[in-house]
Every structure is written in C-alpha cells, then in structure tokens.
C-alpha cells in the first residue's frame, strides 16, 4: 500500500478472503452441519476481456493463504499502525477433476 487508506483497503480484502476461505457451521435438527467454504471463479483478463491465451480454471476453493508483513525484510507501519508492506500468497484447489474432454472444451 502507498498510504494508510490503501493499507486499510488491503486489510479489508484480506479479511474478506479469510471469511470466504472458512467453512460455516450451521445448527439444525440433525446436529451441526458444516457448509463448505465459498467457491471462487478465477479468470484472467486483458484489455477488459477474458484472456483466452491463458489456461482456464473450473470453480475453486481457497485452501491456503499466507500473509507476510515483512516481504523486504523490515517491518514498518504508517502513522496509524497499518503495515506499509504486505505480501499475500494464496493457493486454490479446483473442484472439478480435469478430464481430456474438459481440456478439449477449453478448460
């Protein structure tokens, strides 16, 4: 982030991703029910349109998210305490097994 406002926006994005990565517990008549995490549909875009020169994904779930507040080796914050450096890495797992037929269809 270039300033405190952007750092807050990044923090909000990280919190939303963490929220959608987590499963949900619902209490019902049969006991607790675990609802799977949110699904993500990832597309690559170029000039405002989907870039079909890059492989396509089926729906995914966010399986891992790592947040590094010292990607350049030093911890620093803006005046209000928000970090000045944030590196987020994520891993997604596709929910559909890719078959030769799906690959021939462009996935």
Proportion of residues in β-strands: 25-35%
Structural classification: alpha+beta
Number of helices: 2
Question: Largest beta sheet, briefly?
Answer: 2 strands, antiparallel
Mean pLDDT: 92
Contiguous runs where pLDDT drops below 50 for at least 5 residues: none
Total beta strand runs: 6
User: What is the N-to-C order of secondary-structure elements (H for helix, E for strand)?
Assistant: HEEEEEEH
Measured between the Cα atoms of the first and last residue, the distance is 34 Å
Notable characteristics:
single chain; 107 residues; alpha+beta; flat
Topology:
Elements: H1 4-21, E1 24-28, E2 31-35, E3 45-46, E4 49-50, E5 60-68, E6 87-94, H2 100-104
Antiparallel strand pairs: 1-2, 3-4, 5-6
Walkthrough of the structure:
The chain has 107 residues and is an alpha+beta fold. The protein is built from 2 helices and 6 strands. It has helices at 4-21, 100-104, and strands spanning 24-28, 31-35, 45-46, 49-50, 60-68, 87-94. The strands form 3 sheets. Strands 1-2 form a two-stranded antiparallel ribbon. A two-stranded antiparallel ribbon has the order 3-4. Strand 3 (45-46) and strand 4 form a beta hairpin.
């Amino acid at each position: 982030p270039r300033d405190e406002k952007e750092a807050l926006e990044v923090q909000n994005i990280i919190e939303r991703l963490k929220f959608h990565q987590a499963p949900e517990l619902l209490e019902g008549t049969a006991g607790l029910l675990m609802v799977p995490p949110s699904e993500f549909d990832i597309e690559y875009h170029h000039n405002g349109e989907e870039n079909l020169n890059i492989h396509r994904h089926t729906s995914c779930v966010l399986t891992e998210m790592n947040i590094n507040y010292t990607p350049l080796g030093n911890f620093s914050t803006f005046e209000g305490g928000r970090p000045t450096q944030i590196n987020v890495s994520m891993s997604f797992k596709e929910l559909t097994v890719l078959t030769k037929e799906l690959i021939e269809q462009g996935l």
